[in-house]
Amino acid sequence: MKFKSDKDEKYLKEIINDYTSTSGMNVNACKIDNSEIVKCIKCSELRKEYKFCNLVHELSSTENNNKDICTNDDCKNTCLYGSLQAEKLGKEYIYFCPFGLVKWTVPILVDGEMNYFLSGGPVLMHSIDDLLIEDVISKNKKLEPKVDEVKKYLQEFEVVNTKRVRHLARVLRMLAESLMTDENLRRVREKMKINEDNAAVAEFVGDFKEKNDEYLYPLNKEKKLISKIKIGDKDESRKILNEILAYIYSKENKGFQMTKVRIIELIGVLSRTAVDVGADLEIIFGLEYEYLEKINQVKQIDKLSIWLTKIVERFIECTISIKNVKNRDLIYKSMDYIRNNYSNNISLKEVAHQVGLSPNYLSSLFKEEVGMTYNTYLNRVRIENSKNLLKKGYSLVKVAHMVGFNDQSYYSKVFKKIEKTSPGKWQTGQKINIYRG
Question: Which Gene3D superfamilies does its entry note (predicted)?
Fold first, then answer.
C-alpha cells in the first residue's frame, strides 16, 4: 500500500509502530504544510513516555494548547530543520535536538512535495555524566532548579552508538521509500542526484574564477554582498546585487541563456560562502529541480533581476532563525566528535573539518553557543573521563596518557583548575568513600 493522502494516516501509524516494535526505537510522523509543522501523529503519546521531553515542554514559554504539535519553539524549529535537510538531500538526515539528544528524519513525498516526514529517536550517543547535564542545563536555564529531575529523566533514553544510529536511519529511509509512489520515489532520488551535482558544479565554478584571469569577475562585490546579507542590510544588499547584475549583463555576449547560467553561478557562490559561516541557503532558496525550473521559466532580464532580488531578501528574513538551528546542530556534532576522540591529539582544525566549517568560525561559534573555548571544552571532556579511570585505580601517569594529555604535570594542572583539587587527592577521596561505604 502506498501513502497518498491524509486518509492513509491510520496505515502510516501502523507502519511506524511496526518499526518501533522491531527496532526498539520510537518514531513520530509529522505533517508539514508551507514549511510549517501542523500535526504530529504521536506527539502527545511520546510526551507521556519521555518525562524529560514533557518537562521541557512544560517549561516552554510558548502558549500553545495544541497537543498534536510540539509546544517548544526550539524543538519544533530543530525538527523542521532536520526535515528540510532530509528533503534537500533526498535521504535520511541525523541531527541533534536543542538538548543534545540524537534524532533522525526522512521525507515522505506526496504529489511531488514533502507532505509528511518520519522522525526517529530520541536517543543519547554518550552515557550520562556531569558534563552532559551541564550542557543540557545551559540550553534552558529554567531547568537549573530541576537538575535532579533532569538527571533522573535522562535515564529514560537508550545510549546508542553512531554506527547503529546510521543503520536505524537508513532502515527508516527504506520504510519511507516503500510508502511512496514510483513517481515520488523518482523525485526523491533525483533530489539526491541534483544535490550531489550542485556541490560538484559549485566547487568547479569557484576554482575556475580563482584561476582564470580573463574572467575578471567582481569577487570583491560578492564578498560585500555576503557581508551585507549577514547583517540583514536589505538596501545595501540590493544595491550591490544590482552592480553585480549590471556587470554580468554588460559582459555577457552569448545570449540570455548564458546570462541565466551566470546567475546560477552567482547563487551558487552565495550558497557556498554562506554555508561556510553557518547558514544554509539551499534550504531557504529551495535549490532543487523546482528552483531550476523557475529559472528556466524566466524569459526576460528584468524579471530575472526581480526574482533574484526576492531570493536575497528572503534569505535576509529567514537566515537568522535557520542559522541558529544549524549552528546548534553543528556544535553538538563537534561535541560528539570530541567525546569520541578526546584520547587522541585532536586539533580545532580536525574537528572543524569533520563538521565542514573553517577553524576560525568553529572557534567563535564554540564561544557563542557553548560559552567556553574549544580547548576548554576538550579539557573538560578529558577530565570528566579521567575521573572514571581514577576510580578504577590507574596511576596518574597512565590516566593522563589515556585521556590525551602529553604529560602528567599538565594533566594535574588542568584537573585542579576544573575540580579545585589535585587528581591524586580526588582519587584518594574516592577510595575513602568506597571504604566507608
Answer: Homeodomain-like
pLDDT tens figures, 58-74: 776 555 555 556 666 77
Residue ranges in 7-111 assigned as alpha helix (H): 9-23, 43-49, 51-58, 73-89
- Which residue's entry shows cell 560528539? 336
Measured distance CA(389)–CA(407) in Å, rounded: 16
CA 31 to CA 42: how far, in whole Å?
11
Contacts for 118 with CB less than 8 Å, ≥ 6 apart:
16, 27, 28, 29, 30, 105, 106, 108, 172, 175, 176
User: Which residue bears the cell 541565466?
Assistant: 260
Note whether residue 367 is domain-resident.
no
- DSSP character at residue 146: G
DSSP string, 97-108: -TTS-EEEEEEE
What is the number of structural domains in the chain?
3
Residue 161: exposure state from Cβ atoms within 10 A (0-12, 13-18, ≥19): exposed
Shared domain check, 240 and 175: no
Cell numbers at 218, concatenated: 567582481
Alpha helices for 212-233 (secondary structure H): 219-230
Q: Is residue 349 part of a domain?
A: no
| Tens of pLDDT, residues 104-130 | 999 888 887 888 899 998 999 888 878
Q: What's the pLDDT tens digit per position in 28-51? A: 888 887 767 777 777 767 777 788
Amino acid at 78: T
Look over the chain and give the mean of its residue pLDDT values, rounded to a whole number.
76
- Among 167, 202, 237, the domain-final residue is 202
Query: Is residue 108 in some structural domain?
Result: yes
CA distance 364 to 105: 29
Asked whether residue 345 is domain-assigned, the answer is: no
Contact 284, 314 (CB under 8 A): yes
